Amino acid sequence: MRLGPDRVLGCPWCQHPFRIHTVLSGSTSGMEVWTDGYARAPMLPEPPEVARCMGCKRYFFIRDACAHAAVTESGQTAHTGPGVHARELSESALYEAIQEGLARDGTEELKLRLLAWRAGNHPLRSNQGAADRSCAMLLAKVGTAMGTISFLFYILHLPRLAVPFLCATPLALLGALITIHGAVQARRANAHALAARAQQDSPFWQNLYALETLLTPDSPANRLLKAEVARQCGRFDAALVLLRDEVPDDFRPAADLIWQLSQQGDRLPRRLRAMADSEPLHIVSRSRIDDIAR
After folding, report:
1. How does the average pLDDT of the chain come out, rounded?
2. 3-class SS at 216?
3. Cβ neighbours of 277 (radius 10 Å)
């Protein structure tokens, strides 16, 4: 991946500046694709599609922003206030944007509700908590081993050799504590997401029901998304009915997985696939990532 110069854009409401990253080249190596159409490509990051202005606090689509200046690789820009980088909106922020009437038509409302649905699924996407706990245990063991080695060096009257290990011990233990804290936060987010699914009147379900109404099965991509929404709503029979029609080969892996999950009564988002580092690198565009995600 090769990053390009930042772009400075202005809020379409008040012209307050903000930045977005640009990528000169990237690849799909390590990309994850999920049953709800979400795609995460570490080697091909994309700016958010919707943001909130730090000036007027209003929401807007990034495509509606006006250009201010390009920031060179040295960080120089003709604009006196380059602003902060735009960030992905949270699930609650996207609900607020919908309520404030950001969508000007059905297509934009569908986009916002898809983004909110995927944001609500984010806490359930990975086994990050388990990974963090394993990493924390490893760091704790490293810290304990370093402390033991430093103690042995002191016993052997070799203090000069003990000092590096003694200094590294608290750093390793601090890393373990930070990692454990991250694991706890991930578990809390996971529990919150599951709790939202337990309340039928929560914003998550209201958005999902509205999304099911907006999606029309007039294309293979929309039909798969509608089937996935029905599956996560627990309407497994409806999902299976939508999946009976033939789909192009590019959509077949997603259709087969959603069919299998529907038969199993599984309502959670599941990973479709992850591109391994050994796979060929492909330079792709945002539209191509959307195609792969679908």
Report:
1. 78
2. coil
3. 10
